[in-house]
Amino acid sequence: MKNLVKSVAVAFSVIALASCGTTKETVKVVTGAYERLDWQGRATGAEVPNWVVAVGDNNKRQIVKELDLDGYMVWSFNSNGPDLDFLQNWTDKVELQSNVAQSISTSIGRATEASLKSEQSIDTTKSDKALKDVTTVLSNVRVNGLEKIASYWIKSRFSESAKPKADSDYKTMYTYYSVWALKTDLYQRQINAAMQDLPENTAQDPLLMKLITRSIEKTILNEDSSVSSVSYDAETDTVTYEEPGAEF
Questions:
Q1: What is the dihedral of CA 8, 91, 189, 116, to 10 degrees?
Q2: How far apart are CA 79 and CA 170, in angstroms?
Q3: The pTM is what?
């Protein structure tokens, strides 16, 4: 299971959205110079949509509200790099299933770990084995029925210097956002089916399965846990899976 780190990709996205002027939310102060060069819909005078701002801010409830996604499990993607075509292909095609699976494993794994630790009658060895079984199975799941709800791109340049003197002082890159969703009931059926692949020692233990099932339901019913965030930095080839309920 991968731990959350605050990656450069995420930090850059917060900077990028800070200048959009489409939200009244407090924006983090960052040292450096930023300039938005181009964005989807600029030619027609369109501003950056609020759902994009919500993805950049990791505002889960706002993402659901803006895109009318009540009753869905949601995955928001935020990727940065110099080649927009690469980002779109990587996010929406090449690594989509893998990233969704890993985010599910991270989300349910965290909930399962908390449930197992709260049950004092389960020894550490059995608890660790059950957690490994759950995260391994979910890391390999392929979710069917995912819908691409929205996508957007911004081209910008950023300098770590507060007063850049030349173009060479800037780094130019694209930020690509997309949101995918799956009906909650369909998601739950597929996760329950995946649990059939658990090793017998875990699957046949009534208490372990009770705790695992409760953890799955918790991630579905919890409004914050129903939205998972994935960030990707193409320059460092780094993927960040956000912990359920965490804030940047």
A1: -20
A2: 19
A3: 0.81
CA angle 110, 148, 10 (to 5 degrees): 50
Q: Whole-angstrom Cα distance, residue 171 to residue 155? A: 11
Radius of gyration from C-alpha coordinates of the chain: 20
Name the amino acid, one letter, at 181: A
What distance in Å separates the CA atoms of residue 76 and residue 17, rounded to the nearest whole number?
A: 15
Quote the DSSP letter at residue 216. Answer: H
Could you report the per-residue pLDDT of 68-105, keeping only the tens digit for each?
999 999 999 999 999 999 999 999 999 999 999 999 99
Structure confidence by residue, pLDDT tens digits, 149-198: 999 999 998 887 777 777 777 789 999 999 999 999 999 999 999 999 99
Q: Are 163 and 144 in contact (CB under 8 A)?
A: no
Please check whether residue 175 is in contact with residue 153, taking contact to mean a CB–CB distance below 8 angstroms: yes
- Classify burial at 8, counting beta carbons within 10 Å of its beta carbon; exposed 0-12, middle 13-18, buried 19 or more: middle
Which residues lie across from 238 on neighbouring strands?
A: 233
Spatial CB neighbours of 107, under 8 Å, sequence gap ≥ 6: 219, 225, 228, 244
Place of tokens 């409004």: 223
The neighbouring-strand residues paired with 155 are 38, 174
- State the DSSP string of 76-141: EEEEEES-HHHHHHIIIIISHHHHHHHHHHHHHHHHHHHHHHH-TTS-HHHHHHHHHHHHHHHHT-
Strand partners, 80: 175, 233
